[in-house]
Amino acid sequence: MAVINENYLLIKSNYIFAEIDQRVEKYQNDNPDADIIRMGIGDVTRPLPQAVIEKFTEAVKEMGEAETFQGYGPYRGYDFLIDEIIKNDFNPLGIELSNEEIFVSDGAKCDTGNIQEIFDVTSTVAVTDPVYPVYVESNVMAGRIGPMGDDGRYDKLVYLPCTEENGFVPEIPKIPVDLIYLCYPNNPTGTVLTKEQLAKWVEYARENNSIILFDAAYEAYIQEDDIPRSIYEIEGAREVAIEFRSFSKNAGFTGTRCAYTVVPQELMGYDSEGNPHSINNLWYRRQTSKFNGVSYPIQVAASAVYSPKGQEEIRESVDYYMKNASIIRKSLKDFGLSIYGGVNSPYIWIKTPEGMDSWQFFDFLLNEAHIVGTPGVGFGPSGEGYLRLTAFNTLENTKKAMDRISKLSL
Amino acid sequence: MAVINENYLLIKSNYIFAEIDQRVEKYQNDNPDADIIRMGIGDVTRPLPQAVIEKFTEAVKEMGEAETFQGYGPYRGYDFLIDEIIKNDFNPLGIELSNEEIFVSDGAKCDTGNIQEIFDVTSTVAVTDPVYPVYVESNVMAGRIGPMGDDGRYDKLVYLPCTEENGFVPEIPKIPVDLIYLCYPNNPTGTVLTKEQLAKWVEYARENNSIILFDAAYEAYIQEDDIPRSIYEIEGAREVAIEFRSFSKNAGFTGTRCAYTVVPQELMGYDSEGNPHSINNLWYRRQTSKFNGVSYPIQVAASAVYSPKGQEEIRESVDYYMKNASIIRKSLKDFGLSIYGGVNSPYIWIKTPEGMDSWQFFDFLLNEAHIVGTPGVGFGPSGEGYLRLTAFNTLENTKKAMDRISKLSL
């Protein structure tokens, strides 16, 4: 008899974005004339940079000609892309990486979801709370942290609350944990850690032989000095951290799909007898058995992000979204809401007003202003009482949405 | 302390194709003038169809314009592709499917590797032997079947030998197994099952509440009548089978990446109390948490495979490769070798001559004829004494390779 992985039954809700989709679809069906502005899902709206389109188009043409056609590519990705990644994303920060330390993939979601596979099922897992649901759900599915109690908290998960009270800076756990997911600039709160704050986590991981799974998908949005763009800016991080990067949010690849993961050669995990094993080897093993690389034309397209023209275009896009963020911040502040993030990140984290809970405020914004946000509680128990808005919209829609909010009364 | 998933240490060898790459690279370095012909990896050589290139190019253009730009797509894939899949790949066989039963992905390797996640870790697994290594390795990694004994067999894996002796038709197990991987037309042996033979497996699965994981990646190569193109041609299969399809081998998408998986709504797995659960729901749950869809331009490109021009072009490609297969079959027969497959499949399965084992014959062909095959033993214990050649090469190289073999002496 085919028995299912019952850990799947421990996941209480639908994937949060699917749930939002359903509510919005129902509202739109009931109110066909409502001009709904989506500021929920962190999906970009600006087209791919022209530098990318040009190279992408050329690479598609190559696939149509026998002399230049490409079949299966290298397991880790093409060197023409990896070379650019290292040269542009890391060397300017003073970080050296070898090509074997980069794994090109079709998305940071896939990588952050799959990475837990290479660790023991009894590993203790810590996440900042609120948190991107993929880290939690992938570990629930693996049987590492379920079931969820009546308080909406998973039994074996170590929550690191990030709230108004602690300025959204997670406290170092008092107990040893094995795997720590950190996402900075943070999704969903839009807040950041300074180098000094992140260094404490590297120190903790080194003391406890823990591994930090550092999601830097929003790195391009950092505006302020002293905010680390890569965890490898922190001394000693190569021995304790995996870093996830993506072309989704800087270059608009959410629908094109390309990302990469950095696994330094020094990074070790341990078997039950305490012998060290290369995490890079394990991840390579995982990828060679269960993945077949990213489309050749897409890797070419991603490499064009690093051309001078590509770099200029992605800067323009980031500036565009950050201008939206600034408009949202100002409007919501003027309206009297307490808000966080939106300075080094495209996300604005709003404290819900008038004692509303997250889904009440979600429904309020949907019904009264036809704006779709993301309920904070969908990101974890400490997200209750908050709601996330994204700056990933057109300037026009952003202004329109803020105008609608300014006319609401609470 | 970050403890690794020790099941990874149970995998004895490198992924077979990586091992071949290493041997070939070494040989080429030692013999820089050798004109090596690769007939090992099942990678296509012909460019993408022009019908595909045209639509692919248009879709890239759309990604560069704000009005037509696409961000995150639907979790299961775009309906414009799924509609074509159902209309062209299934309806003509008398099979009805709903759009919710199709999951578009970036590769059948990923899907066949990941599907085991949704089943219990104690499930018994049966595979034909020899077999595509991904099925086995993904289950070893999950802790379902290791460790491997000294005889080169995994303790808890149920092997279904397919050899000269049984005409490459796997025998129905005498014991109940939970999950059965069947790949037809078969990789690596190139052999097929008739409808009657496959129907016995469906009957077995229905009797035992087993699930068949049916890999039909080579469906396009079927030439003979009475060979099922889909397992759903067999009555009752919707309740017991998942089918994997790919654009890699029919339309040359190995380096472009697109595939799909069919999970019928009737298909149930069971929890430990015997309650049924929809496998479609579980797989949807898995995909929404750990996957983010296939690139929009690639889904457009895949949909063009179904245009009249696309269909004509892929038929030409299949014919081209099958002509190679026929040349290989004739040459090897004339040379005096016992061969199988190559009639409804691009793979030719050769019995090694003169008592050589698989790797000896691999090295013999590499050293003496500069031809790269795939050692049968890399696909499982019953593959020992065989070697696989593929027809995925140019006609010119295929002829050259066969000419070299005809001049060898054993």
From TrEMBL, chains A, B:
User: Does the keyword Hydrolase belong to this entry?
Assistant: no
TM annotation in the entry = none
Q: Which residues bind substrate?
A: Y15, G42, K109, Y132, N187, N292, R388
Cofactor names from the entry are: pyridoxal 5'-phosphate
Q: In which pathway does it act?
A: Amino-acid biosynthesis; L-lysine biosynthesis via DAP pathway; LL-2,6-diaminopimelate from (S)-tetrahydrodipicolinate (aminotransferase route): step 1/1
Q: Which residues carry this modification: N6-(pyridoxal phosphate)lysine?
A: K249
Concerning InterPro entries, the annotation shows: Aminotransferase_I/II_large (IPR004839), DapL/ALD1 (IPR019942), PyrdxlP-dep_Trfase (IPR015424), PyrdxlP-dep_Trfase_major (IPR015421), PyrdxlP-dep_Trfase_small (IPR015422)
Q: Which GO terms describe its biological process?
A: lysine biosynthetic process via diaminopimelate, diaminopimelate-aminotransferase pathway
Q: Where is the Aminotransferase class I/classII large domain?
A: 35-405
Molecular function terms, GO-annotated: L,L-diaminopimelate aminotransferase activity; pyridoxal phosphate binding
Q: What is its EC number?
A: 2.6.1.83
Q: At which positions is pyridoxal 5'-phosphate bound?
A: Y72, A108, K109, Y132, N187, Y218, S246, F247, S248, R257, N292
Q: Which reaction does it catalyse?
A: (2S,6S)-2,6-diaminopimelate + 2-oxoglutarate = (S)-2,3,4,5-tetrahydrodipicolinate + L-glutamate + H2O + H(+)
- Top-level EC class as recorded in UniProt: transferase
Keywords, sorted A to Z? Aminotransferase, Pyridoxal phosphate, Transferase
Biological role: Involved in the synthesis of meso-diaminopimelate (m-DAP or DL-DAP), required for both lysine and peptidoglycan biosynthesis. Catalyzes the direct conversion of tetrahydrodipicolinate to LL-diaminopimelate.
Whom does it interact with, and what assembly results? Homodimer.
The text of the family note is:
Belongs to the class-I pyridoxal-phosphate-dependent aminotransferase family. LL-diaminopimelate aminotransferase subfamily.
Can you say what this protein is called? LL-diaminopimelate aminotransferase
The organism of origin for this protein? Methanobacterium subterraneum
Lineage start = Archaea, Methanobacteriati, Methanobacteriota, Methanomada group, Methanobacteria
